[in-house]
Design a protein that fits this description.
Blueprint lengths: L1 H32 L28 H5 L7 H14 L4 H39 L2 H7 L7 H20 L7 H19 L2 H22 L14 H19 L2
Length: 251
């Protein structure tokens, strides 16, 4: 019994040794022939797989980051932005960097335009302040309405002028002039909230336009006017211009 228990390790020991040697050889085999190497951490892995990375992400200047000059047009900036987004599509950091540079350029352009408008207004205001007193008093009666208002009233008085020309063979433009005067007084009353003041301005524009037309029209060469156009018709066209200016730009 004692001899059997003592001799037992002599049979197991060589077997264990061969097993350990076999495992060691297997590990060496796997190490020497393994073509793929697993990354040690997530940072070592390539971001986005095979998606190319924007190389100018760390450039602070937005113009240099997009690859455009400082005097590039808006079409060139948009084109560079779209091209880069298409080229580096799928890489989130690259897309964010391109969009950030594009937004900075747009914001700088907007700020520059705003400063230019402010400087223009400041220059105009300075010129008005340096102008003679009669110019200041005249400008106090003038204002510029929205562009929609200007076009609507311009269309109205242009229609009156066309109507007068079309009916020139049948009679004078007295009715069209009366309608235009009423429209002018209406617009002035809507603006000034004073019917008396509106009537004074409207009649003043009518008289001024008629006097200017009576003086200027005879001096116009006849070749520039239609043969059927009378002095009264052309003078009424001048009146329409004065009525339009009065009801549109006077306060």
């Amino acid at each position: 019994m004692v001899s059997l228990s003592v001799s037992t390790p002599n049979f197991t020991t060589p077997f264990v040794g061969q097993k350990l040697i076999f495992r060691a050889n297997t590990k060496k085999l796997q190490t020497s022939y393994s073509p793929v190497r697993t990354p040690r951490c997530a940072v070592d892995a390539s971001y986005g797989g095979n998606v190319p990375k924007f190389p100018r992400t760390s450039i602070w200047d937005p113009y240099k980051r997009l690859g455009v000059s400082y005097d590039a047009s808006e079409e060139e900036i948009w084109g560079s932005r779209n091209f880069l987004l298409q080229q580096y599509a799928g890489h989130e950091r690259s897309e964010e960097s391109i969009e950030s540079a594009f937004e900075k350029i747009l914001m700088a352009s907007f700020t520059q335009r705003k400063k230019t408008k402010i400087n223009l207004k400041s220059k105009l205001k300075k010129k008005v302040e340096e102008s003679p007193p009669w110019v200041k008093n005249l400008l106090n009666f003038v204002e510029v309405p929205p562009i929609e208002v200007i076009f609507r009233r311009l269309f109205l008085f242009a229609f009156m002028g066309g109507w007068s020309i079309m009916n020139s063979a049948e009679g004078g433009p007295a009715f069209q002039v009366a309608v235009s005067l009423a429209a002018c007084i209406y617009f002035l009353n809507e603006k000034t909230k004073s019917l008396g003041r509106a009537c004074i301005f409207g009649l003043g524009a009518l008289v001024t336009g008629w006097v200017c037309g009576s003086v200027l029209v005879p001096n116009i060469p006849s070749m520039l006017l239609h043969p059927t156009w009378t002095l009264e018709l052309v003078t009424s066209l001048v009146v329409y211009v004065f009525l339009f200016l009065a009801c549109t730009f006077l306060k």
